[in-house]
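Contributing new records

If you add data, match the layout below exactly. Sequence lines come first and carry their own label; structure lines follow with theirs. Keep one chain per record. Anything else will be rejected by the validation script.
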Amino acid sequence: MGPRKSEDVESRPSSNFVHLSYKSLIDFENLRKTEDSHFQGVLKMFSNYMLAATIGSYITAKSPLFQDRFGSIVVVAVLVVILANTPTMNKTQRTAEGAGAYFFSGCCITTILWWNFNMSFWVILRYFTGVALSGYLYSVPFFLLRVWTSSSSSSSSSGNQRIRQKTDTNRMIFFLAGPIANYLGLWALEPIFKLIFGVSYFLTPEMRMQITVGCAIWFFLHGQFNFVKCRLYDRDILWQMIQLIPETFLSLYFVPKSLFVNNEEDY
């Protein structure tokens, strides 16, 4: 039996950042099986961790003890190192470490915005809350699509006939319908915010639009990258939460560079 041909083996990227490329941004192929649910899991985990950052922002406004930028950065760095070395089977510990990293990141960002940009704690907290809810709202169209697909498949099946699961999803469900659902969801939640906080308004139309547009661009950017990594069997959602911020800055270098690279070996 001879050696397996190279064509039969899925090629691996020569660089860890090969997914941060121009080609990945313009790839609109339908999502393969489980890729859509993987990205929905990323969005939900992002919302959960942003809630931790929101709590950190609130506590920073109440306690000077958490208003140390450099101390927060050190704590975040330590938690990230611990998370990177924690076995993936210890899911509860890794989740807590990631939440702690986002908590102290919220403390650091809040302090920077307050000291260096003269933003009030109340405005910062409202932005954090809106971004924290965006992950859930952004994934609503996919959830509704899955419910509708399941119900239609159930109604069309008869007896013990096996239901064939749909294996492809148009990614525009996320990138077009997601921002619309995000904006409408924030608008619909406004009366609840007013009732809880006892204010005349929580998110102004300008703030709501800024959050919607900002999250739409960010989720599109990382969505395209996530789908590539998902196909390379990188399905660690918890570690992806740590990579979000560095990848945002790295993409500013690697994406333009990929326009002038002919093959992955030079990337």
